[in-house]
């Protein structure tokens, strides 16, 4: 147990510092150690596997993330967290209908679903093209998060970003910009949070909205800001850095 806690804490420190490759290596050690020392279905073992899968997902290593969640599902079919994790992977892979089915099945079995589970449902239905359902879920998630934590909570900002992504998918770029611009400002006002992965994702999302509105100069400045912030903390292969560079190349081809 002590080894599991030490490895988990080490992996979290790497992840919080943006060292995703190192975090994943430690999560792999953690998962292997837990598998040797804990019985199948043990909550701590499931948590270790979930952390590994989500580490792969955050690093953009989708095939590896899928394998981790699929293994957990095959060994412990009753674990809803693994199905939620796989739903997030399938949404990122563009397999929206499968993502939506997995998310709804898992969500129905959670005793106390949190914001993360709600937002997986939002992204799954967005990926499936069911934008009315995604919009309803995003608005509900935001309403509940605001009531629970208030307007200045980072979870509220993340929920607003999810709502903005749905509005952009619905061709409501103006409303999406009005939703997301204050969120980006909120992330940037807190020096501790301005390089958080969700903050960088927010900047990339807002730049995408500006591009949809034809505001190329605003998008260019924002993407360069994202790259400047990310470069202080993350490796060049971090998904948000790759995404920002790809978006910037559409404005300023090299």
TrEMBL record:
UniProt repeat feature TPR, residue ranges: 46-79
Pfam families: TPR_10, TPR_19
Transmembrane residue ranges: none
Alphabetic keyword roster: TPR repeat
PROSITE patterns: TPR (PS50005)
Chain coiled-coil ranges: none
InterPro entries in the cross-refs: TPR-like_helical_dom_sf, TPR_rpt
Alphabetized SUPFAM superfamilies for the sequence: TPR-like
UniProt-recorded name of the protein: Tetratricopeptide repeat protein
Species annotation: Actinocorallia longicatena
């Amino acid at each position: 147990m002590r080894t599991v806690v030490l490895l988990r804490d080490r992996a979290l420190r790497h992840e919080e510092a943006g060292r995703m490759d190192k975090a994943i290596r430690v999560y792999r050690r953690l998962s292997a150690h837990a598998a040797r020392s804990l019985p199948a279905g043990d909550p701590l073992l499931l948590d270790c596997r979930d952390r590994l899968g989500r580490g792969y997902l955050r690093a953009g290593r989708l095939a590896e993330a899928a394998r981790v969640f699929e293994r957990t599902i095959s060994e412990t079919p009753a674990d809803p967290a693994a199905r939620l994790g796989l739903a997030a992977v399938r949404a990122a892979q563009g397999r929206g209908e499968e993502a939506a089915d997995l998310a709804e099945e898992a969500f129905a079995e959670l005793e106390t679903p949190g914001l993360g589970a709600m937002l997986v449902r939002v992204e799954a239905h967005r990926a499936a093209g069911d934008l009315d359902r995604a919009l309803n879920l995003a608005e509900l998630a935001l309403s509940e998060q605001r009531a629970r934590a208030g307007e200045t909570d980072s979870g509220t900002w993340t929920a607003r970003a999810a709502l903005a992504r749905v509005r952009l998918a619905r061709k409501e770029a103006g409303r999406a910009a009005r939703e997301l611009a204050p969120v980006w400002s909120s992330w940037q006002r807190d020096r501790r949070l301005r390089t958080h992965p969700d903050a960088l994702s927010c900047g990339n999302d807002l730049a995408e909205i500006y591009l949809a509105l034809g505001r190329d100069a605003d998008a260019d400045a924002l993407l360069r800001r994202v790259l400047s912030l990310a470069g202080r903390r993350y490796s060049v292969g971090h998904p948000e850095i790759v995404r920002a560079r790809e978006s910037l190349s559409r404005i300023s081809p090299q």
